[in-house]
Amino acid sequence: MFPxxxxxxxxxxxxxxxxxxxxxxxxxxxxxxxxxxxxTAHHTILIDSCIGNHKHRxxxxxxxxxxxxxxxxLAAAGANPEDIDFVMCTHLHSxxxxxxxRLENGKxxxxxPNAKYIFTRDEFERWDERRPDHVPRxxxxxxxxxxxxxxxxxxQMVLVDDGYTVDDLLTVEPAPGHTPxxxxxxxxxxxxxxxxxxxxxxxxxxxxxxxxxxxxxDDPKQALQTRLSVLNDCMNNGIVLLPTHxxxxxxxxxxxxxxxxxxxxxxxxRL
Length: 271
What we know:
It contains seven helices and 14 strands. It has helices at residues 7-12, 14-17, 70-76, 94-97, 121-127, 143-153, 220-237, and strands at residues 22-23, 28-29, 36-39, 44-47, 86-88, 101-104, 107-110, 116-120, 157-160, 165-166, 170-174, 183-189, 192-198, 240-243. The strands form four sheets. The protein has a five-stranded mixed sheet. Strand 13, helix 7 (220-237) and strand 14 form a beta-alpha-beta unit. It is globular and about 55 Å long.
C-alpha cells in the first residue's frame, strides 16, 4: 500500500499506532472501510458507500463477491435505504461506490430509491467508459458498469462542480491527487467544522509523515500537496478530520508537534 515503506517510521510512532492502527507482530496495518451518515434539519445524507455486496472484483479478493450486513448496520444507525436523500461520493473508486447499487432480479439498481447521487463532473468523466479517451484500469474493471452507470440510467445522478452545497452545511471542495476529480466535503455549522476527506489520507501514519504516499494515488505529488493543505486546515481551524479508512475511533483532530526533531530516517528526496 505504501511503496516507500520505512520501518523506522512505524517504530517511532508505535506508542500510539499500536494496537489500533498497526500490528507489529504481523507487520500489518489496521484499516477500515466505512460510510458516514449525516442528518441535517432537512435531509439524511450518506457520504461514500463502501464496497457493496455481490460485486465482481476478481483481482481484489478483499472486495470480491462480499455478502455483508451493511444495510442492517445502516438501519442500526437509524436509517433505511428509503430514508437517504443524498449520496455524496468523494470519488468513484470501488470501495466508495459499492452500495450505490444492489442486485435485484439479476439487475443492478440504485440502493437508495429516493436519493440524488452527487458526483463531481470531473470525477464522473474520468471514469466514464463510454468516452473515446477513457483509459481502462484493471483494478477498477466493472465498477463503472455496476455501481455508477445504473444510477445515471435511473435518473438519480446529479453532476456538480466545486462549491456545491447541501443545506448550506455540506460543501464540495476540490481535493485532487488521489484521483483528478477527488473532493473533500466540509461540514460547517454553529462555529464548528468537520472534514470528510475521502482518500486524501489513508492511514494515521500519514499524519506525522504526510509524504508517505499510497500506491492508489493517481498523482502522488498532487496528493501530497492536497494532504498538506487539508492537515494544515484542520490544525489551524480546529476541524475534526473524518477519513474513510482510519480504524476505530475513525475520526481525529490534528495538532502540530513543534518539539519533535526532524527524524534522521526520513528520505532526502521528499516528494
